[in-house]
Every structure is written in structure tokens, then in C-alpha cells.
Amino acid sequence: MRETFYTNGNGKMPPNGFMPSEEPKENGFELRQIVDWVWHYWYWFLISTLVCVFGAYLYLRYATPTYKISAKILVRDDQKGPSIPGGEILEQLEIFDSKSNVDNEAEILKSRSLMERVVKDMQLNVEYYVEGRVKKSEQFNNVPFAFHWITLRDTLNKEVNYSLIPESETAFRITREDGQARKLKWNDTLHTREGILQVTRMASVPLNEDAYLVKIRSVDKTVADYQKVLNVSVANKQVSTVDLSITSSVPGKGEKILDKLIDVYLHNSVEDKNRIVDSTIAFVDNRLSVVSRELSGVEKDIQEFKQTNELADLTEQSKLLFSNTNDFAKQLIDQQVRLNIIESLNQYVQDDKNNKRIVPSALVMEDPTFASLVEKYNNLQLERERMLLSSTESNPMIRNIDQQLSGLRTDLSSNLSSFKRNVEVSIRELKRNADAANQQIRQVPAKERVFLDYSRQQALKQELYLFLLKKREESAISKASNLAIAQVVDPAKSDALPFSPKKLLIFALGLILGAGLPALILYLKEMLSRRIRSRGDITNNTPVPILSEIGHSDKHEAVISNNTRTPLAEQFRALRTNLQFVLSGANDKVILLTSSMSGEGKSFVATNLATMLALSGKKVVLMEMDLRKPKISTMLGLSNQAGFSTYAIGKSLMDVIIQPSGLHEGLYVIPSGPIPPNPAELMLLDKTESLFRELKENFDYIVVDTAPIGMVTDAQLLAKWADATLYLVRQGYTFKDQLQISRELYLHRKMPKLNLIINDVKSGSTYGYGYGYGYGYGYGYEEENKKGIFKRIGKSISRS
Q1: Under CATH, which architecture does the 543-799 domain have?
Q2: pLDDT for res 10
Q3: Which of 19, 643, 693, 707 has the smallest count of CB within 10 Å of its CB?
């Protein structure tokens, strides 16, 4: 037993014999305590670890592995890179940060419309499984049949399961999860609650399995599930590559899904570009139809004019007229062509039906400012349509684009009006000059002038027709050369190893859980326990110092004798040594033992303590003052007919009630006597005081075993004659809340020199480091005694 004594500053002991403060914690105390605690329950940790590791093995053995499939595409992004000097620094500071084209394309790849098209094209809402011995495994390309839904009601609240059993190469049996079964031939159609189904036989795959499980899910639910496992990310701001990944339990299926998603995305990007070209071609075709009719009408008028006036060759007359008016006519034609184009474009821009359409870029005037406005307008229209794939028209960004488009339409209309006014001024000026020239050739016959008018109209319409025809061919060539906005850098490819579960992580979790589960259970057991289990439970609930610790004993009688060398005897010797410092006064002889409740070992400790004091050559008397439930006389086999109760009422003399204990010649016992009806009142009699006074004169030590102070007040009544109080607590028996009784007694000084004795400390328990040291000392003493090494023990006892 490790014994530690404290003194105050002047070298004297404090009034209670021991300092109330806890022992200073040694370095590594907590770690040592944890190690001892784990070592005590090592078999639980071993069993739990083995079970959890085996469980991790079973999980890895039968869990469905998930693979990660990755792909990469390169987006042609004209917005990447700074456009102003020092733009790199501004981008890093994010002062002029804006969404780039690649960011928009990444959002389109995440859109629900693309995934929905993939799900419908690949019929991903239909999954095929094969039953194994433990789990179901999904099949993808090796299924000998396929479900084709001719019509499908996409209103499934939950998945519907079908069981298909091939009976031959021509027939099969299909059973719905509700028990409805049908026998059909391959390629037959079946009317179900979900829609019309056709089961097609895939001749390239043999019928190797006895049964197949087919799960039908809602398209919306399937799209949502695949959107959750799809990851689209832009590597960084300096590149225009987009990384795509998806997780799937079937690597081949995941690769097909990702490749299909990229194909649908590329196809949609080409369609977006072709929409601009198709809009231009449609506009040109409409104008060609109108101009062709006008040109045919002019040519028909010329034909009728020549037939009516019987004109054959007007070359010479035409030369004379054209020699003077050729320049004016040519300029006038050019200006009229421009005016016609401007009026057509202005009409197209001002028409509300075309607000959401692209302005035909092929008909843009040569003015660079106007061409820039048209290009900006068309780009905004395309950006708006792309954003509508993943947003609605109520989106603030869409509304912002609509406002910009409205402003650009106003600017376009203003520019066209300005162009029109300039051209009309030029036409008026040319007509004025032509009229002046015509005055000089008034002598030309009127028929020739009419023919000249028809010729000018024919040239004008023909020039416009050729211009429109040229633009249509250019637009058709542009459509044929359109490419997707992105290109595939890396096609979809699955990782060689599963993405989950990870073996090392699962085994590590198994080890952690195996070690942590018993630790948690034992910790909760300790924390939720209401009884004292460790030294910390005592020191945290009461300031009363701990005088000694007594180990567990299977015997309930006295276990101490003169030649006893057991660990328990050594603990009582240590208690006797510690008492010398508590009973420091010359007249300090009375030792009072009490506890919180019955069963904490007061009688056992009192008997053995008294025996140990008698073994030191002292004359000791043991008083059985638990008048309500006496045990000592019965334990020692003494008569209890006469005792304290008979002495207090005057029926017995003191010489009669003092009996030899039979354990040691220096130890005597005063039994309790017959159980009185009023124990507390007997202790208040003067006879009690005279008894203690005479016992002090005749004995060296008086050990008083009293009733539990937590139940009755007997111990407090006897406290005025006591010189020291030993308060017993029992490991695993005394409640933590009952320590508050000792706390109150100590703080209010209701009991003299109050100290704790911890009883029934089990060997190998997790009580604490102090007890382990004392117990080890006891065993060491016994071993050394066997070897005959007494000198070391003698020195140790003398130091104590």
C-alpha cells in the first residue's frame, strides 16, 4: 500500500490528520490508468475487434463495388484570357470577373434536359438483375432480352419489379411483383399498368440464367438519381477543359452513359449554331420568292411592250440614251438596292414576332458599327436560348439579357432609319441629276423612254435577285461547315479499382469500431453508473481525504492473525500506520467507524482493525455500537445477552459486558446486547459518557462500530467521545450521491478528524493506480517473505 503523509508549513499535521487536497497527479497517470483499464477488459476488445474486422471482410466480400468513370472535353472559349493590358492581374484580383463561356457550358452539361434525353434514349429506367447466392448483380450488355416500352406512364411512385423466367428459346413466363403472371412468346406485347411493353429477344446472348429480375423506375426519378452521381467541373480559370465523372456499379454502363451524354451535348451545340444559319436562309428564301415574282413581272411587261409597239432593235437608240444616263442609272440602282435591303431589315427588326429570333447576319450592311451591333445582338440571343436550357424566363439573368436585347433592337432600328434617310437623299439627288439629263434627250421618242424605264426596273430586280442568291449559297456553305462548340479530349473510361468501398478504409473502420465500441460501452457504463467504481468517483464528489484502501475478501469474519502475510493484512497494517498520524494526541484513543448505509463492511473493518492494533502490543476494546443490526458478536461467536444496552439501563456492570475476543489476548469486545427499542436515547444517557471515560483509562485504543450515519443519527451522537472518524465507502456498492453525506460532515466539522476508507477494492479492477500499487506491494511482500528477505520490509515499515 502506498502511503503519503502531509504536514502544514510548521511541520505539524493538520487537525484531521491528512490534507484534504488530492494527491498531485504524476506524469502519465491518465495514460497509465487508461492502459490498465484497457488491459483489464482486453478480451472484450479482442472479441469486438475480431468481430468487426470479420464484419468488414464480409461487407467487402458481398458489397456492390462502385466505379468512377471519367471523361474530359475541350470547349472553345473565346472569353478565356484577358483582353486588356494587365488583365491577368485583374483576373487574379477578380475585379472584372465574369462568367466565361466554359462555365456556361458546364452548367448546360448539368442540365436536366440533357440527362433526360440520355435516360430515354438508353432506357435507363429499366434495370436488369440476376439473383446470386447472397446478392443481386446488375446486368447491362449481357442480357438475353430487352424491355421496350411502346407507351409508358411516367407516374410511378415507386419502382415496379418483374420476374422473367425463360422457359425455352421461344417462350418465357413474366410475373409482376403483385403476383400477376403471364406466359408469352418473345417479341410479344404486354399491356401492364405502367403501359404497353414489348419483350425483345437478343439472339446474340444465350439464356444462361434460370430467372431474371427487371426493375422499372420513373423516368423523372431515374433522371434525378443520375444527376446526383454526375459531377461536372472546370479544372481552373486558365483552361477551357471540362471534367465529367459519374459513379456506377457497372463500369461498362457508366461509360456508355457518359459517352451518350457528351454526344447529346455536342449534337445540341451544333443545332444551336445551325439555328442562326437556318434563320438567315429562311429570310433569304422569302425575299428570293418576292424578288423573283417582281423580276418576272418586269420581264413580262417588256415582252408585252415590244410586242405591242413592234420593236425589234433598239441598240442604237439605247446607246445614245445610256451614254448620258449610264452613270446616274448605275448609282441609282445601287442606292435603290441598299434602300430595299434597309427597308427589309428595318421591317424584320420592328416586327414583334422576330423579337426572339436571330437577325440575318448575311444581310448586314457594310457599315462596321451596324455589323458590330448585329453580331452582339445575335450572340445575346444565342446566350439567352442556352441559359433557358437550365433556367426559366423569370431568371434575373434572362431578364437582364432581354433588357439588353431591347436596347440593341432600338439601336438597330435607329441606325437603319439613319441609313434609310441618307440613301433617300442620295436617290433624290441622283433623280434630280437624271431628270436634268433627260431634259437633254427629250427628243427621244416616248416609246424608247418607256422601254428604258422597263430596262432599269429589270436591271434593279435582277441585281437584287443575284445578291440574295449569293447570300443563300454562302449561308448553306456556312451550315455545312458548322462544328460542335467542344471536342472530346478523353472519352469515358472507368477506373481499374472500385471507387467504393475502399478496402483499407473499411478495414480501418472495422479496427476503430472494434476498439471503440467496447470502449464506448464501458465508458457509458462507468459514466451512467450510480455507484462508486473508481478513485475519481470519490475525489470528485467529496473533499474528505482517503486514509486507506482495503481489498476484497471472500470471508466475512476476522482475517488478521499474528502470522498473516496476505495483501489484505498488509493493507490493515498500512491503515494502522496511517492512524498514528491521525491520532497524534497523547489522549487520542477512540476510533469511530460509520458509513452511508448497511453492507459497506464497517463490522469487518472494525474487527480486523482492532485485531491489527492488538497485534502491535496494545490493549484494544471493540465496541459493537450498531444497536439496531449488530454483527460483530455473531461473527466472533460471542454471547450477546449482556452488552451496552443492558449496561446503559443499569442491568449489567462494565466488567460483565467486556468479553475476550478470542482473536488475540489484547483484544476485547463489548457486544451491543439485546436490541433496544430506543437506541438513540440510550446513547444520550450519562452511563454512556462514564463508559467511555473508564474505557479510556483502561485501554490503549477503543474501536467503535456504529450504525450507518446516512440512515440514523447514532454515529453523530457518539461523535463527541470520538477522537477520529473513519467513514467507509465500498467499491461497486456505495452510491455516488451518498458521498455528499461525508462532504457535509467534513465541511461543517460534525465528525472529528473525518477520513475515508475505501473497502472491497477488487484485484485487477479498474479502481485506480493507487490500489494497484498497494496490492502489488502486498504480493511483493509475500514473495520476499518466501525468499526470506525481511530486511527490506523492516526498513519499509520503519520508514512508514
Answers
A1: 3-Layer(aba) Sandwich (3.40)
A2: 37
A3: 693
